[in-house]
Amino acid sequence: MVTTIGRHALVTIAALTTLGDAERQLKFHTRAALTAGASPQDIVDAVIHLLAFAGNPRVFNAMLAIRQVFAERELLPLQQQ
Fold this sequence. Notes:
The chain is an all-alpha fold. Helix content is about 75%, strand content about 0%. The protein has five helices and no strands. The chain has helices at about 5-20, 25-35, 40-50, 50-55, 55-70. The longest helix is centred in the C-terminal third of the chain and has 17 residues, at about 55-70. The protein is globular, with a radius of gyration of 11 Å.
């Protein structure tokens, strides 16, 4: 279950994705979201949803930063839910 802090971290991840050029902050908040109970799929879904709003380059860059956090936590490959 995602905690309130986890939901806030997901909103922050979405905001940082739309801003662009915030890889360090995206990594920090991705770690926070995972620690607070968000699943990797929750994070991916939130960022992919932004394609129409933030554009492909920003979403792609965000996913690269998020993928690095998943890799360091040995969460790759993502499991189908």
